[in-house]
Every structure is written in C-alpha cells, then in structure tokens.
Design brief:
- The complex is a heterodimer of chains A (111) and B (112).
- By secondary structure, chain A is mainly beta.
- Helix content of chain A is 0%, strand content 57%.
- In chain A, the strands form 2 sheets. In chain A, strands 2, 4, 5, 9, 10 and 11 form a 6-stranded mixed sheet that branches. A 5-stranded antiparallel sheet of chain A has the order 1-3-8-7-6, with no helix packed on it.
- The relative contact order of chain A is 0.33.
- Chain B is an all-beta fold and 112 residues long.
- Helix content of chain B is 0%, strand content 51%.
- Chain B is built from no helices and 11 strands.
- The termini of chain B are far apart.
- The relative contact order of chain B is 0.33.
- The chains are: A mainly beta (111), B mainly beta (112).
- The interface between A and B is medium-sized, with 24 and 27 residues.
Chain lengths: 111, 112
C-alpha cells in the first residue's frame, strides 16, 4: 500500500542553522508534492508545491527538492528562527488528485 | 477576507445521532476536500470534490457522506456517528485540483 514517511522524532536545532526535513514515499508515483506548516490547534498552511518534472523550488528561506528516483523530498529552511517552530507536513498527489499526507515532523528552533 | 469557514468548531454528540459539519469558501475555488487528523496518523482524506456535483472517495470515506450542490459549500455528513469518528476535521479548498490548499480552522468532534 502507499506509504509516506516523515521523521516522527522532533528536529531540534539552533537559531540561524539550516533545518532539513525529509519525506520518503513507497508504492506511489506522485505527480506533485506539497509542503505545509501546521501550528498547534490550527489548520495547515501551504508553503511550497513541486511537480514531478521539477528538481528544486525556492521561496525566500525555503527550498524543496524532489527526487523521484530516490522517492524522496527534502525541505530546507535556511537561517532558521524560533518562529519557524511548528510541525511540517508533506503531501503527495497523483493524477486522480487524491492527496496523501505524511504524519509530519515537529521542528523546534532554539534561540 | 478570503477564507474557509467550518461550523461548528467544537461538537460533542452521542452515538447514532446524525450530524452535519458545514464548510464554506469565498474564493470561488473548484476543488474542496475533507480530512480527519488523528494523533500519529496525520491527515487522512475523507472525500474530495473537483467541482459542483462531482465527489470522490479519499482514503477513509466509510461512515461519511458529502454533497457539492453549490461551488462554495461542501458539507460533511455523519449519518450514524460512532466513537471511532472522534477526531479533528479539516475542510480545505483550492482554485484547481493539485494546487495549494487553503484549510479551515478545524472542527473538533467527540462522539460518546
């Protein structure tokens, strides 16, 4: 069955460092991949979308890569700030436009 | 203000009592979707709709119904709720399928 894996352990880093979050998938051929941020008690907020024919996308301090051979996406936040502390979700969609989410990775940025 | 609204935000009910959670968006989006979020399981898609009168099952549709009679509204219906439907529910919409989704604030449902 389709499976998306995100590191369930929290990622704890020092302010100013680069945070790298991983999203791996199996038994799936996604047409696109999205990353969302979720704060406690709130709905997810869209960050970036990358399509299967794209290798990398950037938006301000955010960068996402998509390797369909490795079946992996990496999400980077450069110059991280305490305000970046949140749970980050990856989601994969295919041509049916059904969307499958990973369970998320919690990021903690220490001042 | 562009937004997705859900009502109610909190609901405690009993097994078997039919309920409806409303979802409305004011952005003229074609794609709408319902998710449930449970600890350790992440967000799971219940149903989605590509446009008016077009709905499809997501990963966990059992025990739920939806309808899309108007573009802006996408209600989630639980005909006979059971305790395993206790969860946090999110509605989302996007201009087109496959694009960034805007999520509502969530509805916390408890079924006793």
């Amino acid at each position: 069955s389709q499976k998306i894996e995100q590191n369930s352990e929290a990622l704890n880093i020092q302010e100013g460092k680069t945070a790298t979050l991983t999203c791996n998938y199996t038994n799936y051929s996604p047409a696109y991949l999205q990353w969302y941020r979720q704060d406690p008690g709130r709905g997810p907020v869209f960050l970036l979308l990358i399509r299967e024919n794209e290798k990398e996308k950037r938006k301000e301090r955010l960068k996402v890569t998509f390797d369909t051979t490795l079946k992996q996406s990496l999400f980077h936040i450069t110059a991280s700030q305490p305000a970046d502390s949140a749970t980050y979700l990856c989601a994969l969609g295919d041509s049916s436009y059904k969307l499958i989410f990973g369970s998320g990775t919690r990021l903690l940025v220490r001042p | 203000e562009a937004q997705v609204t859900q009502n109610p935000r909190y609901l405690i009910t009993v097994t078997g009592k039919k309920l409806t959670v409303t979802c409305s968006q004011n952005m003229n989006h074609e794609y709408m979707s319902w998710y449930r979020q449970d600890p350790g399981l992440g967000l799971r898609q219940i149903y989605y709709s590509m446009n008016v009168e077009v709905t499809d099952k997501g990963d966990v549709p059992e025990g739920y119904k939806v309808s899309r009679k108007e573009k802006r509204n996408f209600p989630l219906i639980l005909e006979s709720p059971s305790p395993n439907q206790t969860s946090l529910y999110f509605c989302a919409s996007s201009f087109l399928a496959g694009e960034e989704q805007f999520f509502g604030p969530g509805t916390r449902l408890t079924v006793l």
